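User: For documentation purposes, I need each entry recorded in a consistent format: the amino acid sequence on its own, followed directly by the corresponding structure tokens. There are two entries in this batch. Please keep commentary to a minimum and don't merge the entries.

Assistant: Recorded as requested. Entry 1:
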Amino acid sequence: MIRFDERLNTITLHTRSSSYQMKLDSNGVLLHTYYGPRLRGGDLSTLIQKEDRGFSPNPYEAGTDRTYSLDTLPQEYSSNGAGDFRTPSLEVDCADGSHIVDLRYVRHTIREGKYALEGLPAFYTEGGEGQTLEVELLDRYTGLEVTLLYGVMEEYDLITRSVRIRNGGQGAVQLTRVMSVCLDFPAGSPDLITLGGAYGREREPVRMPLTQGVHTAGSVRGTSSHQQNPFMVLCDHDATEDSGCCWGMALVYSGNFLASAEYTQFHETRLTMGINPYRFAWRLEPGEQFVAPEAAMIFSDHGLGQMSRQFHKAIRCNLCRGPWKNSRRPILINNWEATFFHFNADKIVSIAETAGKVGIEMMVMDDGWFGKRDSDFSGLGDWNVNEKKLPGGLAPLAQRINDLGMKFGLWVEPEMVSEDSDLYRAHPDWAFQVPGRPMTRGRSQLVLDLTRQEVREYILENLRTTLKSAHIEYVKWDMNRSLTDVWSARLPANRQGEIYHRYVLGVYEILEAIHREFPDLLIEGCSGGGGRFDCGMLHYTPQIWCSDNTDAMDRLRIQYGTSFCYPCAAVGAHVSATPNCMTHRTTPMHTRGVVAAAGTFGYELDLNEITDEELEEVRRQITHFKTCWDLVLRGDYYRLSNPFAEEPFQAWMHVSPDKDRALVGVVMDKIHANPCRPRLRLKGLDPQADYRVNGTVYGGDQLMYAGLALPVLDEYEAVQYDIEKV
């Protein structure tokens, strides 16, 4: 609900549990006055205390009033070069060589339904739900027009923001910094949470108290990256899973990003998030416009857990699209860790035959099925079937898999090219590289220049041909290196700064075309696992391979961090062989199944090479998952422990929306001599109801407040609890 109070000059956005307010002041500056628990009304600008601050200059219209300074006022979209020395929202090289941006209010409109962004992913509403606020700002000296877009989705406590910039002046300008959101907070002592990590240990929560200065997280790798994630949380210093105020912010974007938290000289905080300014320079001719990616914000005054659950619901229901967003995904087996590049059609069928007997529903053939592809040194870009491995192409193999009662899926990496490929020999200029400079390789491959229309058309046509050549119901879309040597032969020198963003737009364009032409196709995103796990990709791929690291104990940490923003329905999680190929750790088959069952669930091994006992355990895992998949994919998720803390076990649970059912997973961590035996306190149940837990009846209040006694478990051993209301 969006309300404009003409008397107070305030605009207030209300969700179910939060309020967000801005105010038009007497000088046309759009002030940010409040974001927090829902209020009935009022003018929160009365909380802004103006006083003369040394070295904080005053705009011309303030006259002799030294208490009015842009350097001390909370703003909806911060200025640059006009007296505000904090982090700017927008930086522009103006036509006259100046760099000042001083935005003032012009008008606003409120309309039903949420806005959409052309060429960019965004949250959406159906059936007229949601509202849109557009606020037009103007730099009256340059003619630069900035429209702030707000979407309100009350049910999820979700407020989205984007920015549309139009050059209304007479000469060309260059945008060098465009933030999608700026959010000013009053003085306090908050904590900042970001998701850091590396390849194989993605999305590790990093929590720190803010100290004076600018704290940033971001990527300059061309993707959102393994190392940082476009998500951050500002929270009370004492906020926990279940209490305290938390403000979460996620960028709906898959390329270079920057998220910053500036703790100012007056202990106020400014959060900004948007495209990373690194090598970003977007030229706008008169009349042209630029649209920034969307940022999504959720406020919770019931701790981090409630914030996460609201993000989960919004992403699953109103960011993901297509028939798979709320449906059980096929339980699949992927041959990568079983065979790597060394397979043929008979080997794939042999894995599928055993898999089908224990209830697996899809066989996915990974890298190595095309071109001259017996290693990662060649073949990318040549999407013709290697008939030495697959006689007759994909169709006969797909038919053999279908005859087993299973679906057939395929791995692709459309954005890449190998030097040893027919495509590169024919079109070396289609890859990012600077003439006269030696190229930089990553995984022995180069990145195709998706800013070029002919490259996008080539990729799309090859994907169409492949998908139509056989009965293919799933695609794993991989991207296995970061961008370097970023230069395009088709762009002039003064537009080379547009490449990183145009590349991401190219990825979205291809995915959107595939989404429209093959609406029933299930696409799983991947970038060396979790290198592009973000809200932007989830608009096109309702699930993403969480990490190339499939070790169960490491996955506990990766899936924990991922859950701060992203739903279990989006988490590609598989049972793999042990010793694990990345960590060399050995864990029980049951434990691997319990951990993988907190995601989309599948397998990454050759079932012909495990024992009969393990194969029977696989059968039990699959049978059980089919009875509780709706809890995992649609239920409310609760973190019951922190794998980054010194805790003897790790635990989590899924609770049905009606609180009638729940599923709890527990894995014992490191064992030490003479250990203590802590109790497991559950969450999210009805305290007035009774529940049957693996055959024994307990009160909901007992399970949540007193806890559940865990059995004695060995190191890395796991247990699951099926819980039903009596």
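Entry 2:
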Amino acid sequence: MEKRKMKESIKFTIIAVILIAIFCVAITPITFQNDTYYTIKVGEHIAKSGIDMKDPFSWHQNLGYTYPHWGYDLIHYYIYDAFGFTGIYVTTCLLSIVLGLSIYFVNTKLAKNQVFSFFITIGVMYVIRSYIAARAQLVTFILFILTIYLIEKFLESKKKRYAMGLVAIPLAIANLHVAVFPFYFILYLPYIGEYLIVLLGEAIIYRKLECLLLKLKIKQTCKKIGQEQKLEELKKKQKELEDKIDKIKVKRTKELQNPYKIKMNKNPNVKWLILVMIICLFTGLLTPLGTTPYTYLAKTMQGNTTQNINEHLPMTLAEDTDAMCSIIVFLAVLIFTKSKIRLADLFMLGGLCYLMIATRRQITMFAIVGSVILNRLIVDLVKIYAKEDIQKKLPHLIGTSLIIIATLALSWHLGKDTWKAPYVDESTYPTKASDFILENIDLGTARFYNEYNYGSYLLFRGIPVFIDSRADLYAPEFSGKEEDIFSDFIDTSSIGTFYGDVFNKYDITHVITYKNSKVNMIITKTQKSNYKELYQDDYFVIYEREDQQN
């Protein structure tokens, strides 16, 4: 019986791994995002010149740059140098597969159910599909789900190998994606919070204070002569109070063993987990970036870049079906069933939900980390309500066949258009316009005004830019400049400021812009005499300023 069960488990694991891999490839876009282009170019600069903490790609002079994911950039440059865009795409597919399999195996190990782990993995990858891209965040997604696994296993066994893994992860983050370094430590807080709550619950502070006061009174009474009767009364009162404390302890122990909704556990290994976390705090120093892991996020929050970049904006739940459905599922399980949740999981869920609503891109962490919590809740739910072990019933031939057909159909539906796409979208990035610039314009004297979304592609082609998607570089908190280049771009592109004033401020000589941009529409309608059109295609137009003071 055990051998048969083992064989069934291995068969399902093989099928699950293959299906997850196919699904992950299906949702991985072939067309690259803007960050991919500067990633390659920054990696090339590091390979040739090292980390100089200065930006070499903008025509703005002496901008300070922190190289926040220098390790990732360098690796991707070497991949691009050896295999081109195909190498970058294949690498992204492999990282997507590793992420999917990490979610699956972590869920399987912690929730002890293969079937639910498979469905939840597919659901998580579907929810975060928009964030699967050739960006450093894809690596940190993998590291964060592994962090949850290592924390849980360390608390369970206190084995050194899990502690060593927990120390290695922030070291990797500090060199691969420094922006999320502080988030790593947030993952520890729910476990520590649960431990402290249980400690406070055991303390019975108000009774113990009362008991302490009685002891002080007894001490004072002992020193006085003729107070024997009062002393006896105090001792009797002390005994009654201690008995009450013991009864409360027994009652609370029973409540902890069979709670109504929230399970609490005083795990003594949390003390060692705190020590591991303190050690991890120092891993941010093991990077060529100096103190950047400790200061980067704070500086980013001080500026206004996060208020103007779509993925950093607060989430509107009514507009995000995936997030809304995820929250409803959690609430339904917690409110309408007998399933119980660990206090640490409740803290984690609440914190991630807040982060997701505050910053929409945190739906990724809500989905990835929340998958473990949801899996545990569902497994508990099935144990309470199911008469038979669902794990034994589902992976039979018919059930497995249905899973295979459904997953392949969904993969085909999501991937059929993606697989036809090019690496570079000519409607988004100025491929032909860049060819024209490199062939006809002297880049040594030209100062281009360009827009945020395709600036990274221009610098990838070797064209110095006004701005690109490294938003922090152009904010005074990072650049070391008095000018707020990022705000000037936002005001110009939205016509909050007359673009001519900004062009004069920065001595702009040339303009490259989308044909349907507000700036181009105004130039075309009112200022055409001051701008000589050098080039246009279906999507972009290039001007040379005739009079740089107009």
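Summary note for entry 2:
The chain is about 65% helix and 5% strand.
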